[in-house]
Each structure stands twice: as structure tokens, then as C-alpha cells.
Amino acid sequence: MAAGAWIGIDVVVATLVLAGRFGGTDQIRALAYQALATFIIWPMLTASLICLVSGLILGLGTRWGLIRYWWVAVKLVLNVVLCALIAFLLRPGMADVAAYGRALTVGDGDPSTVSALFFPPAVSLTALTIATGLAVVKPWGRIRKGGGRRGRGQTRQA
């Protein structure tokens, strides 16, 4: 459920970024950037952290484990990386995005402030799509062959 919310929030981010870039008037563009700066980070960070915690709980409590299968490990890494990107790269830049939105209301502002905003939703939606695909397909197999419990009749070979 949190993953669905996170994807939905990313779609809203993409929509606001596009409205901010291609909106018909400066007022629409200003509102999009101010909304992006004001309302997006905490819901996105919350959804990503809930996904991380629920993934850890499911990994520890199911047969898939956290680092037994490559697809689970890749999903874990993607989640941690995206959480870090939100917290340490996206969040600090939102003050500049809000300032740019306010500057647009008076017909001013430097568009280079927001020129890189296409990347966060593109990267996040791509990574979340990959993670969803991994959860469905479950490719690659176990990380270590032969680890864990041995089946009946299996013996250790020297």
C-alpha cells in the first residue's frame, strides 16, 4: 500500500514539475513550484520509509529473506538509495524551488534553479517500476548456492 502511495506521489511530483515548466501563465507555474516545495517531500519521504520498514519486516519474516535472493537485495538497495536521495538531495533544494515560485509571481526568477527537477520523478518512477517488476518476476535466484538448510539426503562435500 505504501509503495502505491509512493508511486502516486511521484506521479504528482512529475505533474507539478511539468506544470511548473510548461504552465500557460507565470501564476500557474509559480503555484506548481510552490506546491511542489510545500507539500511533496514529507509525504514522499514518509511513504518511502514505510516501504523500507515493511520491506525489512517482510524480508525478515518470510522465506525470501533480506539477502537470500538477488531480487530482494536489489529492491532493498533501490529503496535505501531512493530514501537517501529524497532526504539528502531533494529536500534541501526545495527552499530554492519555493523561492523561485514566489519570484515567478512578480515576473522574476532564475529558471536554472529548477532546471534539474525533471530528474527526481524520472529516476524515482523508473526505480519504483523496476522494483515492482522484480517483485512480480522474482528473477536471478539465490545469492549463495548451498547456504541455509540442507534437504534430506544432502551431505556436505569436502
Task: Walk me through what this model shows.
The chain has 158 residues and is mainly α. The chain is 70% helix and 0% strand. The chain contains five helices and no strands. It is elongated. The model is unreliable at 150-154 (pLDDT under 50). It has helices spanning 2-22, 26-39, 41-61, 70-105, 119-137.
List the defining traits of the structure above.
single chain, 158 residues, mainly alpha, 0% strand
- Described by the principal axes of the CA atoms, the overall outline is elongated
Structural class: mainly alpha
Strand element count = 0
Poorly predicted sequence stretches spanning 5 or more consecutive residues: 150-154
Strand content: under 5%
Order of helices and strands: HHHHH
Q: Helical amount among residues, as a percent range?
A: over 70%
Distance from N terminus to C terminus (CA atoms, Å) equals 47 Å
Which helices and strands occur, and which strands form pairs?
Layout: H1 2-22, H2 26-39, H3 41-61, H4 70-105, H5 119-137
Task: Compose a concise summary of this entry.
The protein is mostly helical. The protein is built from 5 helices and no strands.
